[in-house]
From TrEMBL:
Keyword DNA-binding set for record: yes
Residue ranges annotated for the HTH merR-type domain, each copy included: 1-68
Protein name: MerR family transcriptional regulator
Domain of life: Bacteria
PANTHER family the record matches: MERR FAMILY REGULATORY PROTEIN, REDOX-CYCLING DRUG-SENSING TRANSCRIPTIONAL ACTIVATOR SOXR
Residue ranges the record marks as coiled coil: none
Cleavable signal peptide: none
């Protein structure tokens, strides 16, 4: 199957497929004239890769997960990898939650500058 066919059926761009190949996530064969040739299973592989990306996993982690997927088993190492990624995402969410709270304060100050002590001139200045 040609790259455009896989892209169309999987709902991604050909550029995405080339990126997946660069990252080692997808390995098409090459025809005699150098064109990429994908097996039928590539469509499902691309959809799986998209699911991993949607879950917030970086390509290096996806690459580590694919052998477990190919083996068709859940191994403790795979669960450990996913748990580490979950913790990373949870920590990032906590950081973003703090940033959001700070931004809410700034917005509140901007809406009510008269109530902001930092915006008032200090005596003696």
């Amino acid at each position: 199957m040609r790259i455009g066919d896989v892209a169309s059926r999987a709902g991604v761009s050909t550029r995405a497929l080339r990126y997946y190949e660069e990252q080692g996530l997808l390995s098409p064969e090459r025809t005699a004239n150098g064109q990429r040739s994908y097996p039928e299973s590539a469509v499902q592989r691309v959809r799986l890769i998209q699911q991993f990306y949607a879950a917030g996993l970086p390509s290096r982690t996806i690459l580590r997960m694919l052998p477990f997927v190919d083996a068709g088993t859940t191994m403790p190492e795979a669960l450990d990898i996913l748990s580490v990624e979950r913790d990373r995402i949870a920590a990032k969410m906590a950081e973003l939650g703090q940033a959001l709270a700070q931004l809410d304060q700034v917005i509140d100050f901007a809406r009510h500058p008269d109530q902001c002590s930092a915006a008032r001139p200090r005596a003696g200045r």
